[in-house]
């Protein structure tokens, strides 16, 4: 078969060099464009100031707007959720994080952690009580797993739930909890006499407090809190009936990590496109710096890793939609894409020179945000060991 004449080929698009847009359906593109337009209208004009101020003002209004476009719990079905495909959810995460990782974290924790836990493991009463309002953004949720002394090893958690008659009484602390101080409901994981269980905790319950964590240099446009549970008394119905042991929270984390595989590429895309535009217009030695070999080498390497990462994310999304995506494959994506996204951001910073550290450009903001994304939902080391165990046929190097 002869090659296609160059006169009939589509033009080369520097922002889509592999033509990955051809992989998307019209519905996929409609979802992507809706979220992209929302971020352009509601986030991008303000995000630099929010980041500099270390706050996310109007978070409840933003949540309701995200609910209105179907972005909250969008891959779940029923109970007011959009029932979107995994690929469409991933595209939404990419567009949200192209604006800011904190905005994507708001959506991920709401939909992939708090809502998913209730949808997957909750009772019918839990689902009817919480999911429609969470999908609409009327109630914000959080997910309490990480503790001050137990991050990568959740099996060692100290938060404890003890039976008292027909009630449960919870005591303990959770740390680094996105949405915590603005949440109306928390999904909290605790040790019990029968192993780890999950609990649906209305945040107005006596003994529950969520002091906000400040002095962050990453994810500054995001609400991060501690959860303090001091004799929090819950009825027997508060327990998630279908979640027993660590498989419950780890299943939720897999769902959230999948969104990160896409989202990290959004941050990388913004930094790459910023560097590309800058290289075309910034002049040194009498011509644009994009005309120098070293700059072109950087741009080429960034483009290769960015679009390989998007291609990987799309492949994993197709596997998830087919019911064939394994947790080890999600670890593969999270490990690769976040690591490469940080490198793309750092390389973009070098192209911008001193301007790269200014909030007039998005590069340093994305680079510092990704330092958190690299750690949460499983550190680099944890995902390396997940893959290592799978590659070696089950040899466990965690302990």
Automatic annotation (TrEMBL):
This is Acyl-CoA dehydrogenase. It holds the Pfam family Acyl-CoA_dh_N. It comes from Streptomyces gilvosporeus. GO terms for biological process: fatty acid beta-oxidation using acyl-CoA dehydrogenase; fatty-acyl-CoA biosynthetic process. SUPFAM superfamilies: Acyl-CoA dehydrogenase C-terminal domain-like, Acyl-CoA dehydrogenase NM domain-like. Residues 142-232 form the Acyl-CoA oxidase/dehydrogenase middle domain. Its cofactor is FAD. InterPro entries: Acyl-CoA_Oxase/DH_mid-dom, Acyl-CoA_Oxase/DH_mid-dom_sf, AcylCo_DH-like_C, AcylCo_DH/oxidase_C, AcylCoA_DH/ox_N, AcylCoA_DH/ox_N_sf, AcylCoA_DH/oxidase_NM_dom_sf, Glutaryl-CoA_DH_mitochondrial. Keywords: FAD, Flavoprotein, Oxidoreductase, Transit peptide. GO terms for molecular function: fatty-acyl-CoA binding; flavin adenine dinucleotide binding; glutaryl-CoA dehydrogenase activity. The keyword Protease does not apply. Residues 244-391 form the Acyl-CoA dehydrogenase/oxidase C-terminal domain. Belongs to the acyl-CoA dehydrogenase family.
């Amino acid at each position: 078969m002869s090659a296609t004449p160059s006169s009939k080929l589509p033009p080369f698009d520097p922002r889509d060099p592999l033509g990955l847009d051809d992989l998307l359906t019209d519905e996929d593109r409609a979802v992507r464009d809706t979220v992209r337009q929302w971020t352009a209208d509601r986030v991008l004009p303000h995000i630099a100031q929010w980041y500099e101020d270390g706050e996310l003002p109007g978070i409840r209004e933003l949540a309701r707007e995200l609910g209105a476009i179907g972005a909250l719990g969008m891959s779940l079905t029923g109970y007011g959720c959009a029932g979107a495909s995994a690929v469409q959810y991933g595209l939404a995460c990419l567009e949200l994080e192209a604006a800011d990782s904190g905005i994507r974290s708001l959506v991920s924790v709401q939909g992939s952690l708090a809502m998913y836990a209730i949808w997957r493991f909750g009772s019918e009463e839990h689902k009817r009580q919480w999911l429609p309002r969470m999908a609409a953004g009327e109630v914000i949720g959080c997910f309490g797993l990480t503790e001050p002394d137990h991050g990568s090893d959740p099996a060692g958690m100290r938060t404890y739930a003890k039976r008292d008659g027909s009630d449960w009484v919870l005591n303990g602390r959770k740390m680094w909890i996105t949405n915590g101080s603005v949440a109306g409901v928390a999904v909290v994981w605790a040790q019990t006499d029968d192993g780890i269980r999950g609990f649906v905790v209305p945040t107005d319950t006596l003994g529950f407090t969520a002091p906000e964590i400040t002095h962050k240099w990453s994810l500054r446009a995001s609400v991060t809190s501690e959860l303090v549970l001091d004799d929090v008394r819950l009825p027997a119905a508060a327990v998630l009936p279908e979640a027993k042991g660590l498989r419950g929270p780890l299943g939720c984390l897999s769902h959230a990590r999948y969104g990160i595989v896409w989202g990290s590429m959004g941050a990388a895309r913004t930094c790459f496109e910023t560097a590309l535009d800058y290289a075309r217009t910034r002049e040194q030695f009498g011509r644009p710096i994009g005309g120098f070999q070293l700059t072109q080498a950087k741009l080429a390497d960034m483009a290769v890793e960015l679009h390989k990462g998007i291609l990987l994310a799309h492949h994993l999304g197709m596997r998830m939609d087919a019911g064939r995506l394994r947790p080890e494959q999600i670890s593969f994506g999270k490990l690769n894409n976040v690591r490469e996204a940080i490198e793309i951001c750092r390389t973009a910073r070098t192209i911008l020179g001193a301007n790269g550290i200014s909030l007039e450009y998005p590069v340093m903001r994305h680079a510092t945000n990704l330092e958190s994304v690299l750690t949460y939902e499983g550190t680099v080391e944890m995902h390396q060991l997940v893959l290592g165990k799978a590659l070696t046929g089950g040899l466990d190097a965690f302990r």
